[in-house]
Amino acid sequence: MKTNFLFLCLLLTCSGFQYSYTQTDPEKEKEAIKQTDIEFSNYSKENGMEAAFLKYIADDGVLLRPNSRPIEGIERVKKLFEEGDASFTLTWMPSFAAVSQSGDLGYTYGTYELTAKNEKGEEIKRDGTYITIWRKDKVGNWKFVLDTGNPGLEPPKK
Length: 158
Prior knowledge:
Blueprint: H1 2-16, H2 26-47, H3 49-56, E1 57-64, E2 71-72, H4 74-83, E3 88-99, E4 105-117, E5 123-136, E6 142-151
Parallel strand pairs: 1-6
Antiparallel strand pairs: 1-2, 3-4, 4-5, 5-6
Helix pairs in contact: 2-3
């Protein structure tokens, strides 16, 4: 009996050495997630919103859009983009980022600018706010799992 108990203790002690608990630097991760959000916006400006969203979305990512049920998963997002109108430019700038203590989940929020042309060919701009929730993938890249935005930085119409 003592032999089994000692063997069990030895096994549990040794198995603890297999796990490497990496500590994350929350400030470093906050900067990394903020930088990823900036790169996401730059990619949108250079390659189009659709290409950017498909590059940075997690396979199970969700988009929340006005007057729509949640668009869940990369395949449904692709379908949405195939049916939509992408004749506009969407860029944004994070103003805040936070990351979990474990360093694998976080969020950014900030303001966005949508630029399009009206029926007369004149450029119009709309501003709003957004929040993006991020999770690290298996290789350590930040991918968004939830993205939503709200129009409303324009003054109310009278």
